[in-house]
Design goal:
This protein has about 120 residues and is an all-alpha fold. It contains five helices and no strands. The mean pLDDT is about 80.
Length: about 120
């Protein structure tokens, strides 16, 4: 008895679900194409699909960007000469020069200077 009742309920639920799913439209493609007027009608004459419009608009913006870049490159102001930097004063006899300076290579040639450098690391 309970088995029969369970089967009937399941069968009834399955039929109801199938009928409900068949009625779903989900915004199908049955809608009529809109009637365009004015400038939209002219533009849609060249680009009838939405995808074509997207490509055309993106291409227009990209074209404006490229034209602006070309104009900027052609009419750009000439670069100014880099200002001459004054030479840094030479390191004093006991100081360790900066690692990025040209004097550091000459500093490492002396055994005494290498010992100073190692001692400064140990501090």
């Amino acid at each position: 008895m309970f088995a029969t009742l369970g089967r009937r309920t399941a069968l009834h639920a399955a039929r109801r679900t199938a009928q409900q799913q068949a009625k779903r439209r989900m915004g199908g493609g049955a809608a009529a194409a809109p009637e365009w007027t004015g400038i939209d009608k002219v533009v849609r004459g060249y680009f009838p699909k939405d995808e074509d419009m997207v490509v055309a608009i993106s291409g227009g913006y990209f074209g404006l960007f490229i034209l602006f870049k070309i104009k900027s490159a052609l009419s750009g102001s000439p670069e100014e000469a880099a200002p001459v930097l004054a030479a840094a004063p030479a390191a004093s006899a006991g100081a360790i020069p900066d690692v990025d300076s040209e004097e550091f290579g000459a500093f490492l040639e002396s055994e005494e200077n290498v010992a100073k450098l190692v001692e400064s690391f140990e501090k």
